[in-house]
Write a structure and sequence with these properties.
399 residues; alpha+beta; 60% helix
């Protein structure tokens, strides 16, 4: 590898790693916050929460890697063009391959990483994640006997235990059940206990009342001496985990079990998931080619209407949206399978044509003018706002 190629690879790789870390951190944070209820609602420990959070990382790597790569390549080449380094390379008689080769090597490594995570690590991470969530429900018995706290058992079902009494008895039992459409049920019992009958677990409530309120405002009160509230439906064990096609390994998707209930109902979902895994890795190469087509040529600053990074990201987002759209439709409409593979192939072919013909891939002129005018209006508005605030502050000081 030439010195110039190593130089380009080193710069692009540094930006790629930085963009990957920051993008992973942002996406991971949004996903983690969506699962914070695992601790707040089910009372799990912080260790379980962080374990679930760590298992999220393999699920977002295949999506984030291509975007980090397009940012790295477009930004590196754009800076080199601003510093006239691309012009010097062209003037020295170097071929386009001098710029393309190091970028494609990084893209190939990123594609291998995405393929390995998508088909090797992610399915096991998803399965382990479901096991942890199922275990949190299976451990419900130890959660409900905590004194003085509300526990969310299921959507619309909350339970509170006032105190623990001798002989494993419970005191001050409160249950709010709004799962039944059109009615809200509230149970209150002075005492009770959890009784195990084989595989079933029942909350026996003694000396209490049931308040039933309908949407029309009708209220009925029923007093009971003993009432059994079934908890078995919420004590799902880890071996009863429902695995979706995304949770299955690639080997299983290639040869699914004929007795699989989901496969019997939606056989197309397994093939669609398999097609997505076999095509998703290619987006690193596609995005690298797009970035090369957008920012790989030495251009005068007067020619650039929009920053190449913005153009590359906009095109990459559109291509990835087409891929997601096709993958979402492929399980119900088999013809979309051709689009799943066709989107990266066509996008690569278009980008390669721009590279070979030494053309620059840019957004349409009307889009460029609109974005430029919009950015100008935003800048002018921000400047006017700061000036207005400054004058108001000055007048307030004078007063």
């Amino acid at each position: 590898m030439k010195v110039v190629e190593r130089y380009i690879m080193r710069r692009a790789l540094a930006v790629f790693l930085a963009a990957l870390i920051w993008t992973l951190a942002i996406v991971w944070t949004t996903q983690v916050l969506a699962r914070i209820d695992l601790v707040t609602d089910s009372g799990q420990s912080a260790l379980t929460f962080f374990e679930v959070a760590a298992l999220i990382i393999p699920t977002i790597i295949p999506i984030v890697v291509p975007f980090a790569l397009v940012v790295a390549v477009a930004q590196t080449l754009s800076v080199m063009n601003s510093d006239s380094e691309l012009a010097v390379i062209n003037a020295a008689g170097a071929s386009r391959w001098t710029i393309v080769r190091p970028v494609l090597l990084i893209a190939l490594a990123a594609s291998v990483l995405s393929f390995a995570v998508d088909n090797g690590v992610e399915p096991y991470a998803r399965q382990k994640n479901r096991q942890l969530i199922a275990s949190s429900r299976a451990d419900l018995l130890s959660l409900i006997i905590q004194e003085g706290t509300f526990r969310k058992i299921d959507d619309g079902l909350f339970l509170q235990i006032g105190e623990r009494l001798p002989d494993n008895r419970l005191g001050g039992i409160f249950v709010a059940d709004s799962r039944e459409e059109g009615a809200n049920l509230i149970y209150y019992a002075k005492s009770g206990s959890v009784v195990e009958k084989g595989d079933e677990k029942v909350l026996m409530m003694n000396d209490g009342v049931i308040h039933r309120k309908t949407l029309t405002g009708d209220l009925s009160v029923i007093r009971f001496t003993s009432y059994a509230f079934d908890l078995s439906a919420f004590m799902s064990a880890a071996n009863d985990i429902l695995l979706l096609p995304k949770d299955r390994t690639t080997q299983y998707l290639l040869n699914p079990d004929a007795n699989d209930k989901i496969f019997q109902r939606r056989p197309g979902a397994y093939k669609a998931e398999l097609d997505q895994r076999f095509s998703e890795w290619s987006y690193s190469l596609v995005f690298a080619l797009i970035a090369l087509a957008v920012a790989g040529d030495a251009r005068s600053h007067r020619e650039a209407r929009i920053h190449p990074l913005i153009t590359a990201i906009a095109i990459a987002l559109f291509v990835r949206w087409l891929g997601f759209f096709a993958a979402g439709k492929a399980d119900k409409i088999p013809q979309y399978t051709y689009m799943v593979y066709g989107v990266p192939i066509v996008a690569s072919a278009i980008a390669i044509w721009f590279i070979v013909t030494s053309r620059s891939m840019e957004l349409p002129g009307s889009w460029a003018d609109w974005l430029t005018n919009f950015a100008g209006r935003v800048t002018d508005g921000w400047t006017a706002l700061k000036l207005r605030l400054s004058r108001r502050y000055t007048s307030g000081q004078g007063a």
